[in-house]
Write a structure and sequence with these properties.
The complex is a heterodimer of chains A (about 220) and B (about 110). Chain A has about 220 residues and is mainly alpha-helical. Chain A is built from 9 helices and no strands. Chain B starts with a helix and ends with a helix. Classes of the chains: A mainly alpha (about 220), B alpha+beta (about 110).
């Protein structure tokens, strides 16, 4: 039995070296292998033969790795999703906090109110769109092109906010507040601009997150396996 | 023996149908499909798992690890609501294929 455990450990190491690295996947495959070994040895096959037969039946790591890669689209495909989530996390808090203010504040002119609420709505919609974005996002079949587009969108969302943040005190604020007689007006305009800047990041994040899902959804609809 | 393309094409429908009868784990799924097909439908054992994982990613099935009495673990899969819908859809498609073939063969041998 000790011998068998060592053999199974070796087999696991071979699978891992072949590219199947996730411990949960290896655990599941090992559990399967042990069931098969048990069945074989129970029916009288000797341990060595049972092990050879069971590992052979499991298939080689290259083939399995390829099949598992199709499931996740490879680890790289997650990068778009991670960047998308980052965009949404950055873009979400302020609009959520500002929502009640922009709904209730009396001094806010109708134009700014509508524009601000539209920006908040767009941000919320973008964040919620992970459920349905596959319906309207383009399907990019080429994996590399899809990943590049997703990463570019995600990065653009984050870089844009960084640039906007840098421009805010040095360009936008002096430009808006030149006329001190404006009262609250410049502050309202600035609020609206900030909300739209965040909305843009949220939209880019939603695209970065959703492209992989759109492609997978399309593949699912058009092929059986 | 059924060729591997057909085995692969029917994998999802088979798994969904089996799980609609109750939760199960990889090894048992393979054994049951093999037994029900008189050994004609055989997966390379490992190949079942990418399919299961993809179906889980699709939100069709869910999984949980169960610790057995002998200390070993098994990953059990069960059908989710979306999986039931997917099964309905696939059943319709397979019945359609089956219907056309039956019809054609009926004409041929009538």
């Amino acid at each position: 039995m000790r011998d068998l455990n060592a053999k199974i450990a070796e087999w696991r190491a071979r699978m891992a070296a072949g590219g199947i690295k996730a411990p949960a996947v290896l655990d599941e495959l090992e559990s399967h292998l042990r069931e098969e070994l048990e069945r074989q040895t129970r029916s009288g096959v000797d341990e060595q033969k049972a092990f050879e037969f069971a590992t052979q039946k499991m298939g080689d790591s290259d083939l399995l790795k390829m099949e598992f890669a199709k499931v996740t689209g490879g680890k790289e495909a997650r990068l778009g999703k991670v960047l998308g989530i980052a965009c949404c996390l950055v873009a979400l808090p302020l609009p959520v906090l500002a929502l009640s203010t922009f709904l209730t504040i009396r001094e806010l002119p109708a134009g700014e109110r509508v524009l601000s609420l539209a920006a908040i709505l767009l941000t919320l919609l973008s964040v919620a769109s992970w459920r349905f974005s596959h319906r309207f996002l383009p399907v990019i079949r080429n994996r590399r092109a899809r990943l590049t587009t997703a990463v570019a969108c995600g990065l653009a969302g984050l870089v844009w906010l960084y640039v906007f943040g840098a421009m805010l005190p040095s360009v936008i604020v002096p430009h808006l507040f030149t006329d001190s007689a404006g009262g609250f007006q410049p502050a309202f305009i600035m609020g609206t601009i900030v909300l739209w800047a965040l909305a843009l990041t949220a939209v880019l994040g939603a695209v970065a997150y959703g492209l992989e899902g759109a492609a997978r959804h399309h593949a699912k609809e058009n092929a059986y396996v | 023996m059924i060729p591997k393309e057909l085995v692969a094409a029917s994998a999802e429908a088979l798994i969904l149908s089996l799980l609609s009868k109750g939760e199960s784990y990889g090894y048992a799924i393979i054994q049951e499909v093999r037994a029900r097909s008189d050994n004609h439908l055989q997966w390379t054992d490992g190949m079942l798992y990418p399919v299961l994982h993809r179906m889980e990613n699709n939100g069709w099935i869910k999984s949980r690890w169960v610790k057995m009495e002998n200390g070993r673990k098994r990953k059990y899969y069960s059908l989710k609501e979306d999986g039931k819908n997917a099964l309905d859809e696939q059943r319709t498609q397979w019945l359609k294929v089956h219907g056309v073939l039956t019809q054609l063969w009926g004409e041929k041998y009538a």
